[in-house]
Backbone:
């Protein structure tokens, strides 16, 4: 009986001449029924040697970096702990020497009181913060003090004239009689202070006489006194108040249409002295509301007035 022998031919893998669909493989694909192979690309020995040396250097640097980091970490931690310890100690010392605000104020106040100061002197210093500047006229023979911030105005008719740059109604001036037409021996030639006060008030009203219709002046003498200054000379001090009223419609026929209002309310302080056969007058003008606030300084200005002998 004949045998039928069937020889099954085994398929061999074959190389595809087409490049792989994945270009980054850089090779060909082996097609088998069940397996798929990829060709290994061989590299030159020099390339492998360079890669190996770079890897060794990288590993060496990494080991050195790890070594340095291991060495530096304890040192930094040490310094950080030392600085923290110093901060804690300094804060503790600061707390030990800290003084509450209330106790500090009490200590300052007690030291000030024991040093001889008081509330009265502190208040006087506060009120006397305005500085004064002295004006001396050796040619005409007088001197006085005035606030430093006041400015001189020339052409005002007086021998010297200063005024406040902000309050224009507040000013100071000095006038004196002509040496050729006067022959005063003493301030008592004017009579007592009361009589001299009337003369001064009459002079003020004459100077402030107005030709306007509906203007009315009210005046009164507030005080008259005399004093002997440190130069041994006698001075008169006179204080006068003058108010000025005016109508808002002076041409109105009916009295009800002429409403009277206060224009200004001023205080005039005069200091009189005699020297060189002349009568000297320091005249200080200020609004009444300002005088209440600056009375202490304005009285210092009045008391500073002196008449001096002119050297021939």
Residues:
């Amino acid at each position: 009986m004949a045998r039928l022998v069937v020889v099954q031919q085994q398929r061999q893998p074959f190389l595809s001449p087409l490049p792989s669909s994945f270009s980054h493989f850089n090779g060909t694909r082996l097609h088998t029924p069940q397996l798929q192979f990829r060709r290994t690309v061989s590299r030159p020995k020099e390339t492998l040697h360079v890669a190996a040396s770079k890897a060794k250097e990288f590993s060496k640097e990494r080991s050195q970096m790890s070594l340095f980091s291991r060495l530096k970490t304890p040192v930094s931690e040490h310094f950080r702990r030392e600085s923290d310890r110093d901060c804690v100690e300094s804060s503790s010392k600061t707390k030990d020497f800290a003084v509450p605000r209330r106790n500090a104020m009490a200590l300052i106040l007690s030291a000030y009181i024991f040093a001889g100061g008081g509330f009265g002197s502190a208040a006087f210093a506060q009120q006397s913060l305005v500085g004064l500047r002295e004006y001396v006229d050796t040619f005409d023979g007088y001197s006085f003090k005035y606030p430093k911030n006041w400015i001189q105005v020339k052409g005002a008719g007086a021998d010297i004239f200063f005024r406040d740059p902000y309050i224009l109604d507040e000013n100071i001036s000095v006038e004196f009689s002509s040496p050729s037409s006067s022959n005063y021996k003493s301030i008592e030639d004017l009579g007592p202070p009361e009589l001299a006060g009337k003369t001064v008030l009459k002079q003020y009203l004459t100077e402030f006489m107005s030709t306007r219709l509906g203007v009315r002046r009210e005046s009164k003498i507030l005080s008259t006194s005399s004093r002997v200054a440190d130069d041994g000379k006698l001075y008169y001090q006179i204080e006068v108040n003058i108010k000025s009223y005016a109508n808002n419609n002076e041409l109105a026929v009916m009295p009800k249409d002429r409403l009277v209002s206060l224009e200004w309310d001023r205080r005039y302080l005069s200091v009189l002295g005699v020297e060189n056969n002349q009568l000297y007058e320091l005249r200080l003008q200020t609004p009444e509301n300002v005088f209440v606030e600056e009375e202490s300084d304005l009285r210092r200005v009045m008391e500073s007035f002196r008449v001096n002998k002119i050297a021939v």
